[in-house]
Amino acid sequence: MTEFAVLASSITHEDIAQALVSGYGPTETPILKLIKESRSKGYEAACVPLTTVNWRERWRDMCILPSAGDAGSGKIAAAEKQAETWRRAPGFVLDEVTISRLDEAEGVVGMISDWLQLDSTDDWVRHDSEIALRQELAYASYLNVLTVILPPPRNRVHVASYARAINECLKSTPYIQFSIRLPIYDPAVFQPKQSPARRSTDSFSSVASSPTPRSAPKLVIPGSSSSARTGRSAKAPEGELNATWEMWDIIRTLCDYNTRLTLTLDLTPPLPSNLGVLSRWSAEPVQHIFLPASTFIANVKGYPVLPKGTQSFIRDSMTHRPTIILSGTNHGVHSKGGESAYAQYVRYLEKTSQSVQAARQAGTVEHFAQGYQDYLQTPLQPLMDNLQSITYQTFEQDPVKYRNYEEAIYRALVEWPETERIVICVAGAGRGPLVARSLNAIQRSRREASVYAVEKNPNAFVTLQGRKEKEWGDSVELVFGDMRQIDVPEQADILVSELLGSFGDNELSPECLDGAMRFLKADGISIPSSYTAHLAPLSSSKLFNEARANKDLKYMETPYVVMFQNVSILSGDGGGAGGRCGSQVQECWEFEHPRKDAVVDERGLPLTNSHNVRFSTLSFHIPHAGILHGLAGYFEAVLYGDIGLSIHPHRKDQVSKDMLSWFPLFFPFKDPLYLPSNSELQVSLWRLTNQRQVWYEWYAESFLPVFSPPLPTDKSEDPLGSDGSFFACSSTNVAVPSPLIDAVDVFPHPEKMETRRVDQSPKQDVGIVKIGQTALHNPGGRSSWIGL
Amino acid sequence: MTEFAVLASSITHEDIAQALVSGYGPTETPILKLIKESRSKGYEAACVPLTTVNWRERWRDMCILPSAGDAGSGKIAAAEKQAETWRRAPGFVLDEVTISRLDEAEGVVGMISDWLQLDSTDDWVRHDSEIALRQELAYASYLNVLTVILPPPRNRVHVASYARAINECLKSTPYIQFSIRLPIYDPAVFQPKQSPARRSTDSFSSVASSPTPRSAPKLVIPGSSSSARTGRSAKAPEGELNATWEMWDIIRTLCDYNTRLTLTLDLTPPLPSNLGVLSRWSAEPVQHIFLPASTFIANVKGYPVLPKGTQSFIRDSMTHRPTIILSGTNHGVHSKGGESAYAQYVRYLEKTSQSVQAARQAGTVEHFAQGYQDYLQTPLQPLMDNLQSITYQTFEQDPVKYRNYEEAIYRALVEWPETERIVICVAGAGRGPLVARSLNAIQRSRREASVYAVEKNPNAFVTLQGRKEKEWGDSVELVFGDMRQIDVPEQADILVSELLGSFGDNELSPECLDGAMRFLKADGISIPSSYTAHLAPLSSSKLFNEARANKDLKYMETPYVVMFQNVSILSGDGGGAGGRCGSQVQECWEFEHPRKDAVVDERGLPLTNSHNVRFSTLSFHIPHAGILHGLAGYFEAVLYGDIGLSIHPHRKDQVSKDMLSWFPLFFPFKDPLYLPSNSELQVSLWRLTNQRQVWYEWYAESFLPVFSPPLPTDKSEDPLGSDGSFFACSSTNVAVPSPLIDAVDVFPHPEKMETRRVDQSPKQDVGIVKIGQTALHNPGGRSSWIGL
C-alpha cells in the first residue's frame, strides 16, 4: 500500500550535543549517528539545523552594535570594521556549522538559522540577515542539501523586504528547494502592537541605534491589517486570521510563484476546530507540516493524540503528500507510548483519512484519477477529431453513466403511449455502448421498439458493424455520417445522445443536436432533455503555474479539463453585503432539447448559430481573502425525468455518484487577482459563435462593500442628518456586519444573522466599491469548431 | 506658428437633406459639397454619420420584435426569418448609407450609428447590435475611412459586453482607429435606477420580450457603483463622478490597451468649475473632444464663450493635440458672431493656454522638450559609458544649472576663512563647464584659489586640454582618471561634482563620491552637499504602452527618463483615513557628502557598498479612482546653503526654474493596478548593491479604509457595546468621511475637514483592508554598474 505522508524527525542542537557526549562509531560523526538512529525509528527524512550557536554569536557581535552609551567608540569601530570585512567575503569557520561532509548532508532537510530577521524594522539587521542567509544557502548548496527550511516572516510591515531577499536568493541559488516556515495563524497577534507608520529615510546611517535581536521572535501584525481587536478575544477578527497567509501571499507573489518555493506549515499553535479559513491552504504548495510533540494532547490513557481541528486538518492534507516533521518526540511530553507513539498516530490519521481511503478504493473517482490530479488536459474535440478506440474504451468503463442512460431510456419507453411502436435513434453511437443500453431498456420495458445508430467516425463505424453482426442483428439499423448532414430512413420518437463535455455544451452538443433535430418527430423527446453549466471561482497556485508553464500566453486563454486537488474554491454561500451574491457554485446557462423556435432552412438546419450564444454574469461572495487563479466549470444534465448526470460538487453524489467520465473544466486567468475577505467577485462568461467556431471568453471584476458613515455636512446642519438617523439614507439600506467581521466563522447560522439584520437599528448604509479586474480572456486560437 | 488643435465640423443628417434640396454641382454629391463648405470655413476635418435613418428602421423591424400581443405570430416569424437571413450575411442597401464613394470618404471621421446598444440589457439587442457594428465597420473599411467614432457605453452592468464586442471588432478590423464617445460625467446619473442583478440564463430564447429601442439613450449607473445619491443633489458622490471613467477603463482594459482605441470626450454636459477628477483624463488617449454649440454660453455681448471649467479643461487639453469637433454651429444658438465665432473662440483658448504658450516660448522646459514628451529614454550611464561630445553640449545649454553651481561655489568661497588659499577640485569635469564656472566664482569672490579638474573620459579630456591651453592656463590643473582610483597632487577644500541623475543617486553619484572623498580635506565641503529622491504614483496609458512596446518583459523592469505629458499623478495631499499617508510627492531617501562614518581600507575606499543601500516604504492617499501604471521619480539637490537644483514638481520653480537638464524618472509596473477612490497605495522601493552593481527594485500594495459598524454580538450582549459607544473601540479611533465621500471636491479646505474630524462624535472605527498588489520589479539585466 503506497503511503501518502513522508515522516521526518527533527534533530536539535541538544541532540547533537548529546550524541557528542555519548560517543559514536569510528567512521561516524554525531550527525551521521543521529540520522542513522532516526532511520531506524522509521523516519524517512531528518531536519538538521545548519549552523551552531557560535555563528549566531559572531553575527550578533559584528552586526548588532551596542548602543553608544554601553561601549567605547573604539569597540564600535572595531565591530563595524569586522562587519564590513565579513560583508565583503561572507563565510563560516568550522565550529559555526553542524555538518561539513557530503555524507552528513545526504537526505537532510537543512534548517536555516531561525534568528535571521529579514523583515526586521532595523535597516542594518535586515541587510546583514540577507547576507547571512546567502552565506548559509551557499554553504547548503556546497554540501548538496536539496531542501532548506527558512525562518518565518514576523513583521507584516517589512514582509516585502523579506520576500525580496528570498526572491534574490532563489535567483542566485539554483536547484535548492526553499520552504518557508509559517504558522497557520499566531495567537500572539491578539496582542496590541504599535502603528506601522515608519519612514526609514537615512536610518541606514544610524547604525548605533540598532536594536538587540529578540530571543523569542513573534509575529508582528500592525494595526493596519485589522481592526477591532480589543475586548472580544474569543472572536478572531478575519484580518488577523488572514495575517500569516497574507504574508505568504506577498512572499510568493514577489517571488513570482517560483516553483522552488514551498511552505512548511507550523502547527505549533493548536488550531481552532472549525475554521473555514483553513481550507485556503489546500490551494498552496504545502511541502512540510511541522508538528511538535507539544501540539499533541494526551488521551484518557495518556497516549499522545491531536486536537480535533488538527486531526481533520492533517487528514485533509494527506492527499497533498506532505512531509510531516515531528519534533520533541524524545522529550517525554506524554506519559504513554514512548517516542514512536507520535509517528504511529500520524500513520493512523493517514489510514483514516477519507481522501486516502477513497484513493485506495477501486471504483471511486479518486482511485480512477490517481496520477491525473491537477494535470491540465486539453478538452476532447470529438466533433473535429475522430476518437481513438482506446479513448472510447476508457469512457465505456464508467459504471454509472451508462446505467443512468439505460434507466432514462427505460423510463421513457414505459411512459410512452402503449399502442405505438417506438423508434429510438442514437446520435453519436461511438463503439455502441448507448445502443446496447437502448436494447437492454427495450427488453426490460417489453415495448416494441427499433434502434437507429448514427456515427460519423468511420473507424468506430467498423466496430459498430461488428457488434451488429455478432450481437444486435436486425434490431439495430446503422447509419454512417455526420448527424448535421445525413438523412435517416424514418424519424425517431426518442433521440439518445451523449455529446456532453465537462461544462455541458463545450463539446458542441447544442450545435450537433440542432442538426439531429431533423430526424426527431415533432412530439419526440431528447435524452438528455437539458443540461446546465455551473461556475465557481478558484484559487490554486499549482494550476496557475501549470497553465503558464507554456510561455505562449494563448495557453492562459484555453479552458482545461482537470481533476482538482491542490485547489480551493474561493466563494462561500450567503449573499454578501446587500444580498447581491448567489451561492458557492452558480448556474451560468441552460440548453434544452428539442428546441422548436429556431428559424430553419429548407433542409431543417438553423440559418445561423446565434440561438446558441450565451452570456452570464454571476456575483460570488468571497468570505476569506484569497487569490483568484481561475474558474471551475461543472455541468449537470437531465436525461429523462429525475434521472441525470452531474459533476456539480454539491450534487454529484446524489445524481450520479462515482461517475468517472468527466473531470471539471478549469478556465485560467493570466494574472492572479487579490480578493480581500468579504469581497464580491463578478464573473462574466460568454459563449460565442461565428459561422464556423464556438468559443468562450471570460472576465472578472472585484468589489468591496463599504459603509457610509455620516456624510460630512456644513456646520449649520444637524450632524445626525435631517431624518435623525446616524447614517445617511440611501436606496440600499441593508444593515450588515463589517467586511472584517462578517467572515469570521463564529457565526454558523445564516438564519440567525438574518434575524439580526432585521432587528438591528439604526439603519446603516452599505455601498460597494470596485477594487480590481482581470484582463478579458479571449482565445486567439479558437479550438472548438463547427462546420455549418 | 504650429497649431495644437485640429478643428472638425460635424455634418448631420439634416445638413445632408438640406444639401440635397439646395442642389450641388454636376461632379459633386451632397456630402462632397458639405465637406468642401466645411473646409472653406477653416475646418480641417469633418465628422459624417455613416448610416441613414432607413438602416435604423430596417434593423429595428428585424431585430426588435413586437410583443406577442401586438402582432400575429406569422408577422413575428417573418421578422425572425428576416433577421436570421441578415445575421448570416449582413450588408447595407444603397439608401441606408450616407457615403458610397472613395472621394466622399476622404478625410472623413465616420460616426457609427449612435442607436446601437452593445450594452443593452436584452441579450438579442446586444447580439444584433454587435453584428450591425461589424457591418458598419466593414463598410467603413471598404471606403478607407481611417477613424470612426463609436456610440457611448450606457449601461455599467453590461459594459463588459460592450467592451468585449469592441475588442472583437478591433481584432477583425485592422487599420481603423476606434474612438469611443464618452461624456466626462453625466448629470443623468443622479436619477435613481433599478438594481443591476440580472440573470440572463436562457433569455436568448425569449426573443419576443425584447424592449423597443430607446430614443434618448441615457447612462445607466446601477446602485452597485455608488451609494448615498439621494437628498444631496449638489454634492456629486465620487462613485458617480467616476462612472464614465470606470466604464472607459473597463473597455480599454478588455481591449488590452489597444493603441487603435481612443476617446472622444463629449463635453455636452457643462463641467463643474473645479473638479479634481478631471485631471485623470490627461492620462488617457483623448483623440477628439466633442463640443456642441449648446455647451457654449453667451457673454455679455451675446458672443458664444465657454463656462470657466470647460475653458480651463480645453486649455489644459491643448498639449495633447486633440481634434475638437464643433457641432450645431449653424443653428444660430447665439445671437452674435455667426458660425465662425465658435472656431475662433477655440483658437483663442489655444492661444491663451498656458502650456501652449510655454511650448512656444524659447527657454522653457516645455519648448526645449518638444518632441520628447512621453518618449522613454534609457537613463545615461556616464560611469560605464564615455559620453559623446554632443551629449555634453546639450546639457551645457542649460541656463540655470551652471548659474546655480557658480553661485554655490561663489558663496562657499566668500564664506571660507579669509586667510587661507583655497583648493577646488572638480570631480567629473566633462568638457569643462564647471571648471569655467569655478574660475568665474573665484574671480567674483576675489579669493586666492586654484582648481583641479578630474575626468575619466579620455575623449573629453582632449577638450579639457584645449581649454586649458586657450582659456585657463595655470589656474587649472588637469588630472586624468577615475576618481575612485587616481590620486591628486593635493587635497581639496571644495569638491565640486555633478554626477546627478533624475532620481539623484541613479547615475551612481554616491559611489563615485565615495572614491573622491580621498582627496577632500577632513574639513572640506562637497558641492552638492546632499540630494534627495522623491516619488509619486502615476497613471498613463501612453507610458504603459510605450514601456511594453518591447515584448521582452525586462523592459518593464527598467526605469526610464521621460518628459511627462499624457500623465496624471494619482496621489493627493492629505493623510487619508487615519492619517497614514504622506503628501502627493514624497521623499524616499537622502545622500549626504562628505560622509565620514564609512569603514575604509588603506587606500581610503569603503570596504563594501552596503552604506549606499537604501529602502523606503511610502504611503500615498489616492483621492480619485485610477489605474497605477508606474512611479514618477524626481530629485532635489542642495548645492551649498540655500542654492539647489530641483525637478520636484512642487518646488522646481522656486529652486531652479527653467532648468532643462533633467526630465523625471519613470518606474513602470508590468501590470496595471486598479486603485479605487480614497484608497491608499503603499510603495516599497529598494536601492540595492552588490560588489559590482547598483539597481532598484519596486513593489506596491493597495489598501482601502473600511468602517467597522457595530460588531455582531450575542443576543445577550448590549448592542451598543460595553463602553456605550456605537462603534467598537480600537487602537485607531479616527473619525473620517466615507471612502465614497471623502474624495468629492466640494471640500476645498483640509483645515476645515480637520476641524470636523475633531468635533465629530460618536467615535467611529476605521480599519484598512488590503485589496491588491503588483509584482516585484526586479531587473534581471541590471544596467548600472560599478567597478569597485
Please explain how this structure is put together.
Two copies of one chain form a homodimer. By secondary structure, chain A is of the alpha/beta class. Chain A is 28% helix and 22% strand. The first copy, chain A, contains 20 helices and 27 strands. Chain A has an eight-stranded parallel barrel. In chain A, strands 16, 17, 18, 19, 21, 22 and 23 form a seven-stranded antiparallel β-sheet that branches. Chain A has a five-stranded parallel β-sheet with strand order 13-12-11-14-15, with helices on one face. In chain A, helix 16 links the parallel strand 12 and strand 13 (476-480). In chain A, helix 1 (13-22) packs across helix 2 (30-40) and helix 3 (53-63) crosses helix 4 (73-88). The longest helix of chain A is centred in the first third of the chain and has 20 residues, at 123-142. The radius of gyration of chain A is 32 Å and the shape is elongated. The model of chain A is unreliable at 189-235 and 710-763 (pLDDT under 50).
β-strand amount of chain A? 15-25%
Q: Largest interface, counted with CB-CB under 8 A?
A: A-B, 123 and 121 residues
Structural class of chain A: alpha/beta
Note the total helix count of chain A. Answer: 20
The biggest sheet of chain A, with number of strands, parallel, antiparallel or mixed sense and barrel status, is: 8 strands, parallel, barrel
Number of strands of chain A: 27
Q: What is the 3D shape of chain A?
A: elongated
Global Rg of chain A: 32 Å
Q: Identify the strand order in the major beta sheet of chain A.
A: 1-2-3-4-5-6-7-10
Question: Spans of chain A with pLDDT under 50 lasting ≥5 residues?
Answer: 189-235, 710-763
Overall pLDDT of chain A, averaged? 84
> Helical percent range of chain A?
25-40%
Alpha-carbon distance between the two ends of chain A: 52 Å
